[in-house]
Amino acid sequence: EQQVPHDAASFLFTHFHAWPIEYVLYTFTVVLSLCIWLLLRSFRRTKGYSFAITVAFLLVAASQLYALAPTTLELGRYGKLREAVPIHSKLDALDTRGKHFIEPTTNRTILLRGVNFGGGSKIPSKPFQPTHILHEQFYTGWRNVSFIDRPVALSEAEEHFGRLASCGFYFLRLLTTWEAIEHEGPGIYDFEYLDYLQSIIRVANKYNISVYVDMHQDAWSRWTGGDGAPAWTLEAVGFNIKTLHETQAAFLHQEHKRKLPQMAWPTNYGRLAAGTMFTLFYAGNEYAPLTHVDGESIQDYLQRHYLAALSALVDKVGNEPNVLGFDVMNEPSEGFVGLEDLGKCAWPMRSSYLMSPFEGFKLGSGYSLPLDYYSDAFVYNHTEMMNVHKKSAWLPGHECVWKAHKLWDIDSETNEAKLLLPEYFKKHPSKDRKPNFLNDFAKPFYQAAAEVIHDNSPRSLVFIEPTLFFGPLRSIPLDMEESGKFVWAPHWYDGIQLVTKSYRNWISVDTHNEALVLSKQNLLNSHSGMIGNLMGLVQDVGESGIPTIIGEIGIAMDMVRDDNGIPSAYKTDDYSLQIEAAMPLLASLEQNLASFSWWCYVPDNNYITGDQWNGEDLSVFSPDRVMDESDIFSGGRILEVLVRPYARKVAGEPLFMKFEPLDIERKFYFVFNHSPEVAATFPTEIFVPHYQYPCGFHVTVSDGEFQLHNTTQTLLYYHDTTTEQHEVQILANVCQ
């Protein structure tokens, strides 16, 4: 049995039950105050003196402890719009220069703002298969699915793109999947779906919205607990998709009959099916040289088909004027590459069933084993015997890939499984050193993908990501000699908030420095530092670095559930806690002048099943919250902080930007340096949302002149080119 420590500290801090910490601090304060009083009394101080000192201490302590209580936000008045407002000017081309995005026609620096559109792209529309339902065709009808109308029906697209443009989101990460393009079989593409995707992109263009198209995946595929790859990729390796859940080679929401543990789906990255597929995809030639499909190495086979599907996608939409790039693969995984010991569970998060890779190998090969079950993140529930019917995760005639490579075997006398090479993945087989997944295996794939993209669309940017759990910043940064129009697109979340679906503004975890963070200001500093560190990882790529966009960042909307599992905000329509959780994330992005695409916007989100995928509910829009159909902002969530003024096109180099969304004046302040490479005829464009300034605003500039274009919510600032530094300040008019 896998032994896992169920210690109090792990439960308290990682599960994030913050209320016991608060009560401990309150009790400690009272006890310490009593000790102070007794100490003063022992020095024969007067009663009045001792009492005064003790009360003073209590008042100071109380003022600090007050910050631990949940905040009640005083939200002001927000604007309404009856009709969509398009973005002021199109972004028809995008280039890179060092760490900056550049508009090539004007040399202005570009700051990108957008959302992921949308989470619903992960699941097919025909037949509709959200993960909370085990559809009768899930295992047998995968060749005949369709992803047309995911993430949105073409007939409804204008409504949603109009809303996004009115919110100032003009650069969307548009999700698609390998399965959506090539579900029927190897080399068979769904051209009707590609036609649909092209039509969606053209609707976005009507509102001057640009996109970068994301080849999305999570944990490899829908049959391994996520989304992305077609089912035939698993069968090509020898997996039996019908038994993956029962053998614990995968954990499926569709098959789990009990309450779904929070964030259980990421555990699939460490299980047999997804761990094997990623290892074979990126590093099969090194670690699984005996595995072939029709005489072709498994790595070459999988990458060839993936890149061909990418080529079909780029060929279809890559030359649309508002398509500015492609995200090569969402949240790739190193699989088992780099693991120190296959006999130990190295998975960082405890949710659902916990096992070591070797235990996964055995379960997948017909063994029954006891596994610890976590009913919520980091909350141990019980130990359960798994695969009691001794099913195999492999198709008849196939055996475990890793048994075939002699990592483990079965003792002929005892019939017991024995781990022969526990450190097999610890070293790079041909270089005899510790593998660096990003540079050894991901980089060659990224370069091959860039060639495919640029063969069909030479102007496109190529967005690349680190692995999902690439750890603290002792990780080796990307080592590439040529920038090659690459963009670094890491993701960042407040892991505590996301995993526990709870929030306290005074406690978090700094995953880069592996430290507990206490106090509101330290939390903001930590968030900002981690985002800045992510951006710094690529400062030495090429001659002067490459730009960064935070490809995903967001918060769980379904926080603080009652005994029936219903989030409080859905009953009260009070999103104060969600707003407060989003504030330090957005402030950290501003401090780093970071471009980002917020996760996410799901047109068919609802209050019962959320984003329709693995229990997640992060969408910034829900039809269930539409109260006023005449107001384009109705249905939005956390717009109070998410919709904000920002400099979009800068005639120089941005230096500082800050917005104070809860201040009565909603102050916006922006500073930049003049660039001689930008002609004086090209102004700095600042998005000024009517939503934040319903009663108007007044502008102060350090020099030059400005123009207001209220019909497009835009301030155009023409600065004095003889001055180096320039400032813009916007303050709201107080509504009467």
Automatic annotation (TrEMBL):
InterPro entries attached to this UniProt entry: GH, GH5_C, Glyco_hydro_5, Glyco_hydro_5_CS, Glyco_hydro_b, Glycosphingolipid_Hydrolases
Keyword line: Glycosidase, Hydrolase, Membrane, Transmembrane, Transmembrane helix
Keyword set includes Transmembrane helix: yes
Molecular function GO labels: beta-glucosidase activity
One matching Pfam family: Glyco_hydro_5_C
Residue ranges constituting the Glycoside hydrolase family 5 C-terminal domain according to the UniProt record: 644-730
GO terms (BP aspect): carbohydrate derivative catabolic process; lipid catabolic process; polysaccharide catabolic process
Membrane-spanning residues: 23-40, 49-69
Coiled coil start-end: none
Chain ranges of the Glycoside hydrolase family domain: 161-334
Protein family per UniProt: Belongs to the glycosyl hydrolase 5 (cellulase A) family.
Protein name as it appears in the record: Glycoside hydrolase family 5 domain-containing protein
Organism the protein comes from: Vannella robusta
